[in-house]
Amino acid sequence: MSLSRRRFVSGVAAAFGYAGLWPTDLFAQDRLGQPAPGRRVPLDLDKVAKLNNNENPYGPPESVMQAMHSAWKWVNRYGAPDGGLSGAIQELHGVKAENVILGAGSGEILNVVGITFLLGGKKVLGVEPSYGSVYQQATSIKSEAIKLPLNKDYTQNIPALIEAANTYASQIGFIYLCNPNNPTGLIVPKEEVKQLLDRIPNDMPVLIDEAYHHFVDSPKYATSIPYVLEGRPVIVTRTFSKIAGLAAMRLGFGIAPAALIQRMRPFATGSQNVLVKFGGAASIKDTAAQQKVKALNMQVRDKTTAELRAYGYEVIPSEANFFMVGIRRNVQAVGQEFSKRDVLVGRPFPPMTEHLRVSVGTQDEMNRFMAAFKEIFPAGTMSVAVGQ
Length: 388
Prior knowledge:
This protein is of the alpha/beta class. The chain has helices at residues 5-18, 23-26, 62-70, 85-93, 106-118, 133-140, 158-167, 190-199, 225-229, 258-264, 274-285, 287-310, 331-340, 363-376; strands spanning 49-50, 100-103, 123-128, 144-149, 172-178, 206-209, 234-239, 252-255, 315-316, 322-326, 343-344, 355-359. Helices cover 38% and strands 14% of the residues. Helix 4 (85-93) runs parallel beside helix 11, helix 7 runs parallel beside helix 8 and helix 12 (287-310) packs parallel to helix 14. The protein is globular.
């Protein structure tokens, strides 16, 4: 007998409700158009088109739901089994247990890397805009970030990163590379990743965030996990929040040489709930479900971005489950207009404050987005056509 997704999720949601938590408390990022922090306002997820957090709008597949359901019998036990998660990660990537660290989403791993390698006054080197968690972590531990601008085509400037890494080598704790980059959705081609690793000091750690790895279709892209197998000081992070549809369950992992993992472990909680471990293991094995989500994402994303371009707006080509559209208006104000129409879109990503990041939802959600977009930007209001 199959398990109803609605029945399962309602049980988990009830647990959060009893704890006095709301979605806006748990996931503070991207609360565009929401009341000021401190006000507890529940988000009606059945009402809004939620296109602000790069989530999987389809939810986990039945195989994952069933696996999580089977784990309920262990919830009263410390040291419950992991449902084969550790073994599945090791087998998939050809690594050993000593090369893997788990986290509550890959976000925890990013924070752990920050604490591990920035304490003592070291700095993180990366580009801006990118996923800001690493830079925020640096600030929180009284460290700093060296942030370089993107190229004019919004790609990451690898030669500039190489130059900065060598110039400020004694000051840098690690380099951060988000690939594909959030918020642009653009990849760093595999040749450029190799160029970076070959031309920086050979003992300088590089954190490569592959949260959106599963959505990439470009032959120019490749995962950086083989560099870990070579023994290079590379840390690759992955998450189950995106392709697996487990954002609210919180699970991610990092893969790195054993010596780096050993340094990181003292700063990790080592505490992931048993349900998500079973679900994560099932997700790794259900490659058909991953391919289905990837295909749906590409189909809906490409249809929506084509409509935006035809309407006269620049869209940055994306290899992820989100995209950026140039709107030539302040994102903060525009986001509030979308919110009035029950469509949530991404927050500003300075300095690209006139580019709106939009997560790819279902076709119905993207239809709602386009309807709202045309209300907020009536035809003929774009002052400069794309390509001029």
